[in-house]
């Protein structure tokens, strides 16, 4: 592919697989190069009634300009984060920040694969090379955050406050592991001193005795 250059990327349209999405729910498209602060500014402006939530506009590719309190963009009860490929981890980060900012959000997650077509054009048009179209299947994530309760029987449902217990458990396990590591380090140092390590103590290993010198 050294003689080609990528000209454009075409993503095949796919319907939202999340059930129970309201018609006025905004969809935040998360890309690999998107800035989290712009994404969160747009999402919070649609869910919170704070005047500073939409003080700065978001870029058009990340949701557009939203002015809170305007009749065109009223506050919503739900928001959807969608990402493809490398933007999946950033979409998960945005959802976790939303749940920490707005308490009591219900979450529903779907993981699928979407088809992306890459069109490659030759570097030298007169070389007799044709354009190439490459189809790739990339992972796609859909995350629905709702103030209203969702169907608990759906796969991928997460109740409000579930992440608090998870973070608390991870913090406890991390602190316990660090304490055990310090104890092992201290114990290993003490045992190394008394077990015949380096030094001039009685535990020093003796080598082969030298032959006595002949008497003159």
3D structure, described in words:
The chain has 3 helices and 6 strands. 27% of the residues lie in helices and 25% in strands. α1 (36-47) packs across α2 (88-101). The chain is α+β, with helices and mostly antiparallel strands. It is flat. Strands 1, 2, 3, 4, 5 and 6 form a 6-stranded mixed sheet that branches.
Summarize the structure.
With 216 residues, this protein is an alpha+beta fold. It is built from three helices and six strands.
Present the secondary structure layout.
Layout lengths: L3 E8 L15 E4 L5 H12 L30 E7 L3 H14 L4 E17 L9 E15 L10 E2 L3 H33 L22
Parallel strand pairs: 2-3
Antiparallel strand pairs: 1-4, 3-5, 4-5, 4-6
Helix pairs in contact: 1-2
What would the average pLDDT be, to the nearest integer? 77
Largest sheet geometry: 6 strands, mixed
Which oligomeric form is depicted? single chain
**Which shape, going by the Cα principal axes?**
flat
Order of helices and strands: EEHEHEEEH
Rg over CA atoms, rounded to whole Å, is: 30 Å
Question: Percent helix among the residues?
Answer: 25-40%
Q: Beta-strand percentage?
A: 15-25%
Number of strands: 6
- For the termini, the CA-CA separation is 85 Å
Uncertain stretches of 5 or more adjacent residues:
51-71
How many helices? The count is 3
By helix and strand content, what is the structural category?
alpha+beta
Identify the notable features of this structure and list them briefly.
single chain, 216 residues, alpha+beta, six-stranded mixed sheet, 3 helices, 27% helix, 25% strand
């Amino acid at each position: 592919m050294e003689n080609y250059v990528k000209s454009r990327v075409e993503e095949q349209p796919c319907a939202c697989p999340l059930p129970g999405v309201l018609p006025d729910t905004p969809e935040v498209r998360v890309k690999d190069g998107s800035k989290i602060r712009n994404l969160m500014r747009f999402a919070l402006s649609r869910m919170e009634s704070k005047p500073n939530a939409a003080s700065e506009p978001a870029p058009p590719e990340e949701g557009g300009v939203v002015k809170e309190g305007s009749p065109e963009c009223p506050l919503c009860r739900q928001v959807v984060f969608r990402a493809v490929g490398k933007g999946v981890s950033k979409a998960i980060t945005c959802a976790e920040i939303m749940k920490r900012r707005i308490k009591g959000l219900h979450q529903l997650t779907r993981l699928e694969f979407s088809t992306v077509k890459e069109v490659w054009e030759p570097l030298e048009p007169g070389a007799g090379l044709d354009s190439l179209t490459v189809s790739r299947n990339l992972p796609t994530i859909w995350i629905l955050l709702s103030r209203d309760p969702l169907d608990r029987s759906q796969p991928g449902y997460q109740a409000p406050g579930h992440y608090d217990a998870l973070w608390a458990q991870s913090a406890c396990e991390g602190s316990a592991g660090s304490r055990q590591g310090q104890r092992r380090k201290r114990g290993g140092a003490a045992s190394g001193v008394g077990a015949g390590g380096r030094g001039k103590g009685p535990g020093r290993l003796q080598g082969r005795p030298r032959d006595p010198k002949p008497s003159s």
